[in-house]
Design goal:
3 helices, globular, 5-stranded antiparallel sheet, disordered N terminus, 8-stranded antiparallel sheet, 18 strands
Length: 253
């Protein structure tokens, strides 16, 4: 019995260490059309870890999303400038032949149909209804959708971290989220597990103390990239380490 109590205590301590993420510093820069770039450094004192999160936060009343197909393998930074986007990140998964894996809708055109697979359980979409993150079973093509990318796994659902996310593998992460009060965001995070990223998104006040409703993991690792045009004319950019097949851009409505 004593051994069992000790084991349970160790598990509780480990869980607390993983969950105890706090914000150390926050810096914000204004972008165009009301977008805010937020650079956040967080630490987990118990585990002696820290991560850096960069977010592009915007109002869904003034901004929307566009999925840009990238057959040529151009850089995110080049494409965002050429297409006059406000901000953007890399998009969804692709295979060794550089073909997209899962649904892609770009400028209202279906490029790749919906695919049912274990990992890609969600769809990030933009339509006249707004920006949504949907489970596959919730998604309908009959919504005049202008942009969509299928990816996963879900990180946050109904304001809560999704159970069963991997804790053992750390990598750079890219993600999108919908937030209370008609706001949405795209972001990138330095190396972290999916479970810890979900904990950070659900428990730390990254967006002016507003809660994240849903969050979806995009392609990460060496694909992770982030770009934002600052109001002063400069840009903030985190480069991808290899060509990626598509981008998710923030554009004015």
């Amino acid at each position: 019995m004593a051994k069992r109590r000790a084991a349970l205590l160790l598990l509780a301590v480990a869980a607390t260490a993983h969950a105890d993420w706090t914000i150390r510093t926050t810096d914000s820069d204004p972008g165009h059309a009301g977008i805010v770039h937020r650079h956040v450094v967080l630490e987990n004192a118990g585990a002696q870890e820290h991560v850096i999160v960069d977010l592009a936060i915007f109002s869904t009343k003034s901004g929307s999303l566009r999925v840009i197909d990238n057959q040529s393998g151009a850089r995110l930074s080049e494409t965002m400038s050429q297409e006059k986007c406000l901000a953007g990140v890399n998009g969804g998964y692709f295979d060794s032949d550089f073909a997209p894996i899962g649904l892609r809708i770009s400028d209202g055109k279906l490029l790749v149909p919906l695919k049912r697979a274990r990992l890609i359980t969600g769809v990030l979409s933009a339509s006249p209804r707004g920006i949504q993150i949907l489970r596959i079973r919730e998604f309908s093509r009959d919504r005049n959708i202008g942009a969509a990318v299928q990816c996963g796994p879900f990180l946050i659902d109904h304001y809560q971290p999704v159970r069963g996310l991997d804790r053992s593998t750390s990598a750079r992460r890219t993600f999108a989220a919908t937030v209370a009060n008609d706001r949405a965001l795209v972001g990138v995070c330095s190396e972290i597990s999916l479970a810890d990223l979900a904990t950070i998104l659900s428990t730390t006040p990254l967006v002016d103390r507003l809660k994240i409703q849903r969050a979806l993991n995009l392609d990460g690792g060496s694909s992770s990239a982030f770009w934002l045009a600052r109001e002063n004319g400069s840009v903030f950019s985190i480069l991808e380490q290899k060509p990626v097949r598509d981008f998710v851009a923030i554009v004015p409505k």
